[in-house]
Amino acid sequence: MTQEQAAKKKAIIVVSFGTSYPETLKLNIESVENRIRAAFPEYEVRQAFTSRTVIRILSERDGIQIANETQALERLQAEGVQEVYIQPLHIVPGAEYEKIQKIVSHYIHEKVFEKIRLGRPLLYAMGQDNHPDDYEIAIKALATQLPAADPAHAVVLMGHGGMHPANAAYGVLQLKLEDAGFTNTYIYTVEGYPSLARIISKLKQKQVKKVTLMPFMLVAGDHATNDMAGEEEDSAKSQLVAAGFAVEVYFSGLGENTAIQDIYVAHLKAAMAHPHHGHVHRCSKGHCHSQGHASHC
After folding, report:
1. Where is the active site (predicted)?
2. For the chain, what is the domain count?
3. 13 and 116, same structural domain?
């Protein structure tokens, strides 16, 4: 351990699913990590991926070794770090986020660190009680990359989706977009609901002529390259072209958006500002109650 690391007995682990696309890794993940480094200069900032597949690909193909979330925590423990904050770069509190929650709960229970806290993903709180509305905040950040409003031009966002109940976040986001006045912005998911077919029928009803496809994912990686913008007939681009729309592709992940980067910094600050040290808690009405979960305030 270097002298500089020894001086930093506080650490932040920035954890994401990861990506096997080197350029995307730099633009979308490392850019957020660097934003966090700049905001918290007194902390040692580490990178971790939750995807074992991505970690394996990078190791075998590029000789790049990236820690998973458990390895990153074990290394900090071995180095004698006592204060640890984990900021996930996930979009919704789904299976990948729960994986980290369980590990953090275990570390809290075992009292491995003096303090360990978990920040929340991009979309978590909906403005209930004294909590911020993560959806409204994310929409404002997203608005910085949306084209000018035009009734004949729609934006179609691609989310990941899946079987996890957190998939419902995308339905909430659609409603919140409408509430915020973005009536020509739609979201579909690759592996869940809302579906692209649902959006295509709405675009036809509205007599939209042109569509901009945009990833609502941290990285513009495999899903953006193939499922969204690929040349195969089942890609979103091909389906929209076949349905008669002119299609443009905005090929950047959310991690490139500085306003989105700032949200992750804000979520980390919220976790740090939490009044309870090293307890397991869930927040309600501004108070915290022990419930066997890692903090996500």
Report:
1. 160 (proton acceptor)
2. 2
3. yes
